[in-house]
């Protein structure tokens, strides 16, 4: 059996790797009944990518002291001010 170099498995996830997973999410499906659909992650990637990378790599680095908070975290969308032109891709017609 030939030896394999597995050192890359110990590295944190990169933006390219996480983006590849986001792009594979079905556009009209959510990972859970209360989750956001794939279209949200794809359309807001530039806004959420750094926070998402920090959260994923924090978890990957085995920072287990906050598992309970991870399972009870809330994401809140902040409404736009009146009169602003918003992105209506997520509104139903």
Brief descriptors of the model:
about 90 residues, mainly alpha, 4 helices, about 40% helix, extended
Write a structural description:
- The model has no long low-confidence stretch (mean pLDDT 79).
- The relative contact order is 0.12.
- 40% of the residues lie in helices and 0% in strands.
- It has a domain of 59 residues.
- The termini are far apart.
- The protein is extended, with a radius of gyration of 17 Å.
- Helix 1 packs across helix 3.
- The longest helix has 16 residues.
- It has 4 helices and no strands.
- It is mostly helical and 93 residues long.
Sum this structure up briefly:
With 93 residues, this protein is an all-alpha fold. The chain has helices at residues 15-24, 38-43, 45-60, 67-71.
The fraction of residues assigned to DSSP E strands is under 5%
Structural class: mainly alpha
N-to-C SSE string, H for helix and E for strand: HHHH
Main pleated sheet? none
The N- and C-terminal alpha carbons lie at a distance of 59 Å
The beta-strand count equals 0
Shape, per Cα inertia axes: extended
On the 0 to 100 scale, the average pLDDT is 79
Q: Which spans have pLDDT < 50 for at least 5 consecutive residues?
A: none
Q: Output the number of helix runs.
A: 4
